[in-house]
């Protein structure tokens, strides 16, 4: 039902794309949640936000809209039918290249080591006999989602430097797994020889690192990292932004930002649940922080 509601909201927004958002009289604060993880898990992880934000923002309620993929949330933000979402850097780049005034990037996470970045990580089954990137030549590679930074954009732009040719020429076949969680499960099931997902790169690979998709899957008991091997790790990627609809009332935006900045201290469990792992804090960002990713996306896929 929520997925249908999101798509319906997007369709309605197209009819009123030129109208001003009802900022001062906002009654419902609408949260978009990108796809790639079990919907029940996503709703449960964000429930603490639903419970806390109405009082903070002075709205009647907060509603969650989990999309089946990244683009569902991207289109909701572009259409003005969503007010807040956590995106990957490439997802934000897609929005910015379409309409630079649609949303504002305001915060990102800080890793436990103080870094404001993470990594694209290529994994394969340990029992596959594939131990290095060189072993993947002529094999089938899976990506997470076409709008994913770590699951697609960074691998297709960074891998050629290491394999000395294009992704298309090096691998026998590529495909998409339908989000990060589904992709790793597809690698586990042998549908891909390897796949690209994301992690903090901090801590132990055997634990899925301190945060990221692998860690979330380990914590949920979906995978055991002893069954996987890491084949490749990208250069550091800027952590994805928390974005808010630009046309919202300034006072509401300031209240939301202050609430989020305080969340790691006021409710560490909620912070960890919504962000998916161990992080130190949030830090403020702006569009300039994501300019390298915007440029990469524009060059690779034209927005």
TrEMBL record:
One annotated Gene Ontology cellular component of this protein: ATP-binding cassette (ABC) transporter complex
Signal peptide: 1-23
Keyword list, A-Z: Signal
InterPro entries named in the record: PhnD, Phosphnate-bd
CDD domains cross-referenced by the UniProt entry: PBP2_PhnD_like
The keyword Signal belongs to this UniProt entry's keyword annotation: yes
Keyword Iron-sulfur annotated: no
One GO biological process term: transmembrane transport
Record Gene3D superfamilies: Periplasmic binding protein-like II
Top-rank lineage group of the source organism: Bacteria
NCBIfam families documented for this protein: 3A0109s03R, PhnD
Family, as annotated: Belongs to the phosphate/phosphite/phosphonate binding protein family.
Designated name of the protein: Phosphonate ABC transporter substrate-binding protein
């Amino acid at each position: 039902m929520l997925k249908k509601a999101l798509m319906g909201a997007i369709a309605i927004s197209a009819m009123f794309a030129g109208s001003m958002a009802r900022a001062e009289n906002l009654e419902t604060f609408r949260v978009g949640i990108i796809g790639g993880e079990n919907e029940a898990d996503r709703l449960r992880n964000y429930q603490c936000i639903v419970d806390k934000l109405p009082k903070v923002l002075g709205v009647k309620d907060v509603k969650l809209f989990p999309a089946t993929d990244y683009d569902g949330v991207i289109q909701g933000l572009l259409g003005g039918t969503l007010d807040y979402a956590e995106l990957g850097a490439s997802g934000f780049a897609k929005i910015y290249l379409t309409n630079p005034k649609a949303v504002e990037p305001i915060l990102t996470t800080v890793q436990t080591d103080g870094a404001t970045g993470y990594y694209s990580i290529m994994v394969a089954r340990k029992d596959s006999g594939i131990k290095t990137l060189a072993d993947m030549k002529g094999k089938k590679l899976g990506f997470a989602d076409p709008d994913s930074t770590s699951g697609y954009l960074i691998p297709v732009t960074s891998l050629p430097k290491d394999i000395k040719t294009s992704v298309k020429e090096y691998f026998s076949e590529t495909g998409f797994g339908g989000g990060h969680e589904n992709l790793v499960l597809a690698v586990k099931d042998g549908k891909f020889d390897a796949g690209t997902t994301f992690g903090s790169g901090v801590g132990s690979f055997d634990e899925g690192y301190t945060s990221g998709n692998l860690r979330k899957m380990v914590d949920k008991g979906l995978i055991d990292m002893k069954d996987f091997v890491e084949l490749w790790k990208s250069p550091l990627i800027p952590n994805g932004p928390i974005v808010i609809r630009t046309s919202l009332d300034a006072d509401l935006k300031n209240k939301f930002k202050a609430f989020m900045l305080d969340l790691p201290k006021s409710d560490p469990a909620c912070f960890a649940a919504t962000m998916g792992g161990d992080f130190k804090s949030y830090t403020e960002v702006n569009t300039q922080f994501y300019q390298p990713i915007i440029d990469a996306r524009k060059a690779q896929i034209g927005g």
